[in-house]
Amino acid sequence: MSLPRSSGWLSAWWSGDHRDITPARVLVTVLLGASLAAAATFGVAWAAGFRDVWQVFSRLDWRWLPLVAGLVAISHVGYVIAYRGIIADLAPQPVPGPRIGAAVLAGFGPLSPRSGFTLDSGLWRDAGLEAGQSSSLVLLLALLEYAVLAPATFGAAIVLFVEGYRAQSGLLPSWVLGVPIGAAVTIPLVTVRHRLPDWRGVRMLKRGLEAAASVWRLLRTRAGLIAAGGMALYWASDIAALGVCLVIVHRGRTPIAVLIVGYATGYALTRRSLPLAGAGAVEALLPFAISWVSRPLRTAVVAVFVYRLINLWLPLVPSAVALRTFRRR
Questions:
Q1: 317: buried, middle or exposed (CB in 10 Å: 19+, 13-18, 0-12)?
Q2: Does a structural domain hold residue 5?
């Protein structure tokens, strides 16, 4: 099943469908993302003080960058494993590993004005999945991301709360209380989802609840456990990449629990889930989130700059090549 081609340059660009992503539209998207990222970084650097930020930046030890790049590459491998586990559960026939890898890599790049998940939907419909299966895959990936990260952040927040760690007021309680409260609300709704009225405003809620039930069913299968393990590898490697960037600029080790809470607060969704791969939004929010867990803002803005340089902009060309490969096939 294929998607209809959008009419008009702007609507085609905004559609996020891979067949409408031409080199000119990719260039527009990349320039827009780079502009937003630069503006956000400039704004946070102004808040931190340009002179202080420059002093931190001038002391960077660039020899650590290959390690950061290696961790980002491992995170992509983890996401491919998660993707493959879900595909194995949903696809009517096996999907070649290189095709899954190309889809993951393309979705991580700032190639679509919408999210990488929008790109995924078109990719998998062209690959033979029905519309419902493609939508289910996207929802399962989104929920699996948070289903792995939220409990880890909940545990890290409890550790810091018990230790009396100094963080911005309300930050740790929001995780300590928010995760179990969210689970307590969601689980009963999942059990009664079929009894909810089929009203227009309720349909989206029912769709999300059905996806949550699918995640639970998936996690009871071998493919689901593999997918969860892959997602855990993704988060662990990406958080470690940010941690190394903090080591480069802070000249000291950041406790793992502090790193997890700071990362999750400013970056609760992967860049595949965000428009323009999070360009602008992550640069604006993540430095403040790190500063909320008692790290200087001047340190955080430089660490996030280096981190995004490696995990977003360095894979740009491979992402574009992967998308081109998909289009040709």
A1: exposed
A2: no
Residue 12 within a domain:
no
Query: What are the tens digits of pLDDT across the range 89-135?
Result: 776 667 777 878 888 888 888 887 877 777 777 767 766 777 777 77
- Is residue 217 in some structural domain? yes
Contact residues for 150 (Cβ-Cβ < 8 A; gap 6+): 179, 182, 264
Task: For residues 97 and 18, give the distance between their C-alpha atoms in angstroms, rounded to a whole number.
Answer: 19
pTM for this prediction? 0.89
**Long-range pairs for 255-260 at CB < 8 Å and ≥24 separation?**
256/156, 257/156, 257/157, 257/159, 257/160, 257/165, 258/156, 258/160, 258/165, 258/293, 258/294, 258/295, 260/152, 260/153, 260/156
Residue 92 lies in a domain: yes
Domain boundaries, position 178 = 21-328
Looking at the 3D structure of the chain, how many domains does it have?
1
